[in-house]
Design brief:
2 domains
């Protein structure tokens, strides 16, 4: 079946807003014929999905994604990604994305935090995200969860959750959640991409990589029960690991600032 690119875009994306975001739409020639299936698949694959999800939409999209995965446990990654790509396209709001890019409060210092806004990802992070947008969205959602749990469990002291026990907990928990939801391979790719795109001084990078690896080891284990129960069990496992000195830091109210990595402990825990 043959259709023009214009017809393909109109039939596939429907909304004028989305069509204007696709570069190829500016060079359409209605007289050129393309294979329908090849055209639509290549167009969808080439979209930058990381630039199509606002921070306001992410929680709702991830909630729908998790429900879809739970309701269809036998689906493969490609089928899940196809569902989520369509979900992103259906909910794309150009005005929200423009507003988000202009909001200074969303310009996070990602070198000292975790990626939670897809439009602020670095180039390598974007590549990893777009290789599996469903997993990428889960990674961003897990980053927000790790940040929230850090403030719930640790006192905000002079070190401001930076290079201390709380920082170790945050990175470890993020990677544990990611390994559980996305597998250790994708979790490592995204965490490594984050370190590459937002480099720190050598000791900070060493600390992050150590704790990221520890988190993936914890998250790769089997956790019985539903999603909520598994999430709680993973969080408790990470908390125990940090308190028992399995993670690494080099700052803290009890040790000041060191020049080598130190074992974590329960200092500044709530």
């Amino acid at each position: 079946m043959k259709k023009t690119i214009l017809n393909v875009l109109l039939a596939s994306f429907i909304t004028t807003n989305l069509i204007t975001t696709i570069t190829s739409a500016t060079v359409l020639d209605e007289n050129i014929e393309y294979d329908f299936n090849t055209s639509i698949n290549s167009t969808i694959d080439e979209l930058d999905y990381s630039s199509m999800i606002s921070s306001a939409q992410l929680p709702t999209l991830v909630k729908e994604l998790r429900l879809y995965i739970e309701s269809n446990p036998n689906l493969g990654e490609e089928e899940i990604n196809n569902y989520f790509k369509n979900l992103i396209i259906e909910n794309y709001d150009e005005n929200l994305m423009i507003l988000e890019k202009n909001q200074n409060n969303l310009r996070y210092d990602y070198a000292n935090s975790l990626p939670i806004v897809s439009s602020k990802l670095g180039p390598t992070e974007k590549q990893v995200f777009n290789s599996s947008p469903a997993k990428g969205a889960l990674v961003l959602s897990n980053a927000q969860a790790a940040i929230d749990m850090t403030s719930q469990h640790w006192i905000f002291n002079d070190y401001e959750y930076h290079n201390d026990n709380a920082d170790a907990f945050r990175h470890t928990l993020w990677n544990a959640y990611n390994a559980h939801d996305c597998g250790t391979t994708y979790a490592k790719k995204f965490a490594d991409a984050h370190e590459k795109d937002f480099p720190n001084v050598a000791l900070e990078t060493e600390m992050d990589l150590f704790n990221n690896s520890l988190g993936r080891t914890i998250g790769s284990k089997s956790y019985p029960g539903n999603a909520s129960q598994a999430s709680y069990a993973i969080r408790q496992a990470v908390l125990t690991a940090v308190k028992n000195g399995e993670a690494r830091r080099f700052q803290g109210m009890d040790i000041g600032t060191k020049t080598t990595l130190q074992k974590t402990n329960s200092n500044s825990i709530k």
